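W.,

You were right to be curious about this one. When I first looked at the sequence I had no strong expectations either way, so I just let the prediction run and decided to look at it fresh. Below is the sequence, 194 residues in total, followed by the output.
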Amino acid sequence: MNDTFKKITFAVFGLIILLAGVSYMVQNQKPLPVLGMLPEFSLTNATGDQIGLDDLKGKVWVADFIFTTCAGPCPVMSMHMAKLHKEFEDDKKIRMVSVSVNPDYDTPEVLTEYAKRYEARTDLWYFLTGSYEAIQSLIADGFKMGDMEEIVFHSTKFALVDGEGQIRGYYTGTEPEEMEVLRKDIAKLADRLK
């Protein structure tokens, strides 16, 4: 009787572990929400090339809004973006995109120096600038982030965008815990790309 009880207990315990594992897998397979669709845009990369939504089609990408003279959250955000960049730089389906909110100062030349500071490969991590109006429109109408009147007062959020140009998540770019969630979500979306 004692052996039978042990076998039943072991079987029930094994079943509980199995069901917990299946439940965890199902929860992690839930699709990410679609939070919006980005409009077409065209901004200038640090290399001087025009980059727009069409150039990012078929890629999973993470966007943030920074400026190179920021003494506040931007260096922390760029450090986290640099970690993501290094982690995913071998995956050709993934890009990082940092858009300057101070286009008067952040010329392609300035952005090139900023990219070097973070050891960025500018073919995989785009540092973009453009007209004030184009950036303001992208923030307000596209990403729906930041101060719409004065774009230099920008959001500290990272936005995750899928291969169709749909926003799939927002993550606080200064919080390590949220960066861990973002890493998993990037991989989840990249795995679904063909």
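Here's what jumped out at me. The radius of gyration is 21 Å. And, maybe more interesting for your project: The chain has six helices and eight strands.

Coffee later to discuss?

I.
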